[in-house]
Specification:
Elements lengths: L6 H4 L2 H15 L2 E6 L13 H6 L3 H21 L3 E4 L5 E9 L2 E11 L3 H4 L16 H8 L6 H55 L1 H4 L5 H17 L3 H18 L6 E3 H19 L3 E6 L8 E3 L4 H12 L6 E9 L3 E8 L6 H9 L8 H16 L5 E4 L9 E7 L4 H6 L8
Helix pairs in contact: 7-14, 9-10, 10-11, 12-14
Length: 424
């Protein structure tokens, strides 16, 4: 596996600064560290008075940066220290900071004179520019630059190379180890999330599975009852039986697909509402407004019916007045929001968080169902998805539950949900 880092990832700048300052004092030479683009990442150490003064001029500073960058890259290509002369005719060296073929930057040192017979054979890295000589102060400072024997100067370059290689390799190994540890934790989290999703799916199907001893027999009985109702002219009974059969077929169906579609979920909810309409007649009305463009959006299995069931448990059945249930969908350009609203008395705000977390357990297990829906949405699509509950907690002002689904599936979402959603 290939990793790409920056110099600041490899070596701490503060630690690098301390090392540079100490080496500059010990060796009696100027030092600065530049990144892969030739930009200084440390403050200069031991710079000559000439270079300090010259770099006050932005044009001269830019020329210096170009020399530093050219020196570092030349050292990178040779994979060893190189000695050269800068555009001001000073002798300098560059020590590359390279690990596993990646160039991170370089130590630039020098601003000195060496023995004339050796110096004249040292090439300029970017040619000569004498424009600085128009400044008398710079000319004076240039004439008083320090001298160092070339042998000592070259030895300093190779000593610095060994120190740099050790620190860079150590920093690189630490980063790789952290990356491996992070990947191990990520893999463990993904395995845990997958196991949790499987558990929640089984929990959602628990009631249905308890009746799955012989579903073929169950459907035969329901179809027989429906046929008898037809022959007797009991149209309402016939419709109710077939609605119930459709519900049971949906719930009991075994499938490896962890995701279905909003359309499939809505069909199941419509059957449930039709049965409740027969049972409770005019005690409630409902409206479903879900545009066709949202019907193929992926949805976890059995995600809506538990929430609609809560509307009957807490709004329709306990009250004498006519209740209202609304299901509608819209989007924000990225996600689809499926909204379920009622006209009940609402939920105290302090209980909403407890309901979503599953910390409140009601007699009929409704809060567990809401928490189950919340967790399955997050495990299917990520922590940015789930449920929102809004309620003013006032008579007849109702409650709004919002479910968010991604309009498009990412690879990670497809993997966490095992398979792509299918229309049924």
């Amino acid at each position: 596996m290939d990793y790409v880092f920056h110099l600041s990832d490899l070596l701490e700048v503060e630690r690098l600064q301390t090392l540079q300052d100490n080496l500059s004092k010990a060796m009696g030479i100027a030092l600065v560290v530049v990144d892969a683009e030739g930009i200084p990442v440390t403050k200069p150490s031991g710079f000559s008075p000439f270079c300090v003064a010259s770099r006050q001029n932005p044009l001269n500073a830019e020329k210096c940066f170009k020399c530093d960058n050219a020196g570092g890259r030349a050292a990178m290509l040779r994979d060893k220290p190189i000695v050269y002369r800068c555009y001001c005719d000073f002798v300098e060296f560059a020590v590359p900071i390279t690990v596993h073929g990646q160039y991170f930057g370089a130590f630039i040192s020098g601003q000195v004179r060496v023995e004339p017979e050796i110096e004249q054979n040292i090439d300029h890295i970017l040619g000569v520019d004498d424009s600085w000589r128009s400044d008398r102060d710079l000319v004076y400072l240039h004439e008083n630059v320090r001298f160092i024997p070339y042998e000592k100067f070259e030895a300093a370059a190779y000593s610095l190379l060994h120190v740099t290689l050790y620190l860079a390799e150590q920093g690189y190994s630490n980063i790789i180890q952290k990356e491996l540890n992070a990947n191990s934790v990520k893999l463990a989290d993904e395995l845990r999330m997958r196991a949790e999703l499987e558990r929640l799916l089984h929990e959602a199907e628990f009631k249905a599975l308890s009746y799955q001893i012989n579903p073929h027999f169950l459907f035969n009985v329901l179809n027989t009852i429906g046929r008898l109702a037809f022959l007797e002219g009991a149209e309402s009974t016939e419709t109710t039986v077939y609605d119930f059969a459709d519900m049971m077929r949906y719930i009991l169906k075994k499938s490896d697909n962890k995701l279905i579609t909003i359309n499939t979920e809505l069909k199941h909810v419509k059957s449930y509402l039709a049965i409740q309409k027969v049972r409770m007649k005019d005690r409630f009305t409902y409206d479903i407004d879900v545009p066709k463009k949202y019907l193929d959006i992926a949805s976890p299995f059995l995600i809506l019916q538990p929430l609609i069931e809560n509307c009957f448990n807490y709004v329709v059945e306990p009250r004498e007045c006519i209740s209202y249930i609304s299901i509608k969908a819209y989007d924000n350009g990225r996600d689809v929001i499926l909204e379920i609203a009622d006209n009940g008395d609402g939920i105290p705000i302090e209980k909403i968080g407890l309901i979503l977390s599953g910390d409140i357990v009601c007699n009929n297990g409704s809060s567990i169902g809401i928490n189950n829906v919340q967790n399955r949405l997050r495990l299917s699509f990520g922590n940015n998805y789930g449920l929102e509950i809004e309620s003013p907690n006032k008579p007849n002002m109702g409650t709004v539950i919002k479910l968010r689904f991604p309009m498009t599936q990412t690879d990670s979402q497809n993997n966490s949900s095992s398979r792509k959603a299918v229309s049924e």
